[in-house]
From TrEMBL:
Source organism of the structure: Sphingomonas oleivorans
InterPro entries with a match to the protein in the record: KR_dom, NAD(P)-bd_dom_sf, Sc_DH/Rdtase_CS, SDR_fam, SDR_oxidoreductase
Protein name, as recorded: Short-chain dehydrogenase/reductase
CDD domains, per the entry: 17beta-HSD-like_SDR_c
Boundaries of every Ketoreductase domain copy: 7-181
Record has Transferase as a keyword: no
MF terms in GO: oxidoreductase activity
Taxon lineage: Bacteria, Pseudomonadati, Pseudomonadota, Alphaproteobacteria, Sphingomonadales
Amino acid sequence: MSKETSKVWLVTGCSTGFGRYIAEHLLESGEKVVVTARKTDKIADLKQKGDALILPLDVIDRAQCRKAVEAAEAHFGRVDVLINNAGIGFFGAVEETEEADARRLFEVNFFGTANTIHAVLPGMRTRRSGTIVNLTSIGGIVGFTGVGYYCASKFAVEGLSDTLRTEVEPLGIKVMAVEPSGFRTEWAGSSSEAAAIIADYDGTAGEARRAYHASVGHQAGDPARAAKAIREAVLAAKPPHHLLLGNDAVDAALEKIDALRANVTAWEGLSRSADFPVV
């Protein structure tokens, strides 16, 4: 890819996991990449991979998000694609989860995503072009045992993405939500956990937590293939609104669609009866 046709990508959370794989793949493909992380020493080596601008970024700091975008625009002239990858996990039943832990999830996963969106939109609106990619999770479509607040934070990003799309597509800006299932990243091993365990949930949230830990290194998803899929989807003539990644994600989403349709159909009469009668 020539420098004349390459895009400028800003990727958050590049120190590990999806973010690093995505940044590496983009650089190796000849793209211009703004590589960000809270600690730049963990991503400094990516400068050798290609045309990279290394910047510190903690997504919960809206002012820093704005400065990062300003630096990217000063260096490359624009930001064509924002990939919101930065996020954290948490294991615990809903009742086991302390308020501070729940708020931290939303601060990073939801408000961090919103902060970078707010930072790139003025430039994208001016150019009437751009793509915003929000990495959520299959847990942003389906609620899973033992990660209730994590799923809630990802559901929130899904809702924000759907609404944002209706607002910015008329301005030439695309919005894509990416929903991976289990991939061989550091997520499961690095996620925080509830401090106070309730025995009644051992067979549900407890079992799920143990399964997550046991899955580390054995997940079906290949993050390198995921990175390639994300770039391919973004560069498509008509990018998808939702990009599910992994067999488990596709199966879970289809099962959710079928269950939702069955539920709506079964209760359709009662649901419709709540409106004022048509005169």
